[in-house]
Amino acid sequence: MPEHDERGTSGEDGGTAGAAPRGRNETPDERADRRWAELIQEIRVAQTGVQILFGFLLTVVFTPKFADLSSTDKTIYITTVALGASATGALIGPVAFHRIVSGRRIKPQAVVWASRLTFTGLILLLATLISALFLVLRVATHDAFVPWLVTGVVTWYVICWFVLPLWARYRYTTQDD
């Protein structure tokens, strides 16, 4: 039996033509529990990456090469660290949010806020990655092609993280709506 999406349709093509969506038959609490579990799984992936990146960023200032960086590169570094710290906070935020409101019977609202924090964290992670890549390539090469290379990588991230999911969301959820 195929799994159903949140609209209740089954199958890869959005359901059977002309058939009414069947739904999951979830209570609001069951839906909130499922959505929370899905969100936590997503956060685990992003959290690990941002924490590792942030940890490495914090060590850069203690390397001998740091003193030789230009003031522009130091500014980029400080910006990158601030973005990394902000991304880390946003991606860990849902855990603290859940812990503080747990047992208060507001899980549906907690899921919404945790989702918002996660999305914000992903945007900040994107900015951190852009800034870190720009800094590393500037220091490593000093070449004029660095902004073009970073632009290409940013374009790839935007396609993978936003364009493709938004296209799929539009493509597969507007057929029957």
TrEMBL record:
Q: Where is the composition biased (Basic and acidic residues)?
A: 1-10
**Has the keyword Transmembrane been applied to this entry?**
yes
Please indicate if the UniProt record lists Oxidoreductase as a keyword: no
According to the record, the segments passing through the membrane are: 43-63, 75-97, 117-139, 145-168
Give the matching Pfam families: DUF6328
Q: Which InterPro entries match?
A: DUF6328 (IPR046291)
Q: What is this protein called?
A: Uncharacterized protein
Q: What is the organism field in this record?
A: Streptomyces lavendofoliae
